[in-house]
Amino acid sequence: MMKRLLVLQHLEREGLGLLSRIAQERGLIVSIFRLDLGDSLPELAKGDLVLILGGPMGIRDINHPSFPWLLDEIEFIKEALNKQVGIIGICLGAQLLAYASGGYVEALLGGTPPKPLPEVGWDTVSKSPGAKTDSLSSLLAVPLPVLHWHGDRILLPSDAELIASSSRCKEQFFKIGSLAYGMQFHIEIEDEMVFKWIEEDSDFIRSGLGVDARFVLEEQQKEFGDSTLQSRLMLLEKLFDLISA
């Protein structure tokens, strides 16, 4: 029996990227739910996998009238956790996963004196010394360059396992329970996605990188997009192995 991959999407530009390739190779039935467009959340069934994608909204937008679906999405995530459904949360998806498990977020600080400063652009994530998930840790034995695009840091619930961190943000990659993983960074991206983000999210990237943000990100994408592709695919493949167990 073919498994379903239930995709919770919050914005047109933040789509599946490389995850579409992996789902196809594994013969998964992909069902996308555009919560921002009013789609209803699905009923969970045995064997389902859940993918929660990113978006510019956040935990502090819960109860905001522009995002009435956030509360229902959090309840859906809690149900998936209770039913031991495999989950991958990316960026906003990671924040929602942590929040549904008792965590929260706060503004990511940087500079001197410290002030809210987004983490935007390519930088490495490295294995946490206390990480217990050996099959993932081995893939991060050498720091992996990934794309960052966020203004908050996650305050993890006490029972979460931290897997990897970046130089600016400790809570980059984590595990909750036995089948749920959150990544604050983006390993699913493809070139055309990033160039669209640069075009459509200009104010945000300038807040993190200054007036040259577009040039910096375009050059970084040329440097790291292709060179990290196989490493990113290997990490995604391993994640799907783990949540399908």
3D architecture notes:
The protein is of the alpha/beta class and 245 residues long. The chain has helices at 18-25, 69-82, 92-100, 134-137, 191-200, 202-209, 213-224, 229-243, and strands at 4-9, 29-34, 49-52, 86-90, 104-107, 109-110, 115-116, 119-127, 144-150, 152-155, 161-166, 173-176, 180-183. It has one domain (4-243): Rossmann fold. It is 33% helix and 26% strand. The strands form three sheets. The chain has a nine-stranded mixed β-sheet with strand order 2-1-3-4-13-12-11-8-9, with helices on both faces. α2 (69-82) packs across α3 and α5 runs antiparallel to α7 (213-224). The longest helix is centred in the C-terminal third of the chain and has 15 residues, at 229-243. It is globular.
Intertermini distance: 15 Å
Radius of gyration of CA atoms, rounded to a whole number: 17 Å
The number of helical segments is 8
Unreliable residue stretches: none
Q: DSSP strand (E) fraction?
A: 25-35%
CATH architecture: 3-Layer(aba) Sandwich
| pLDDT averaged over residues | 96
Strand order in space, largest sheet: 2-1-3-4-13-12-11-8-9
What series of H and E elements makes up the topology?
Answer: EHEEHEHEEEEHEEEEEHHHH
How many strands? 13
Helix-and-strand structural type: alpha/beta
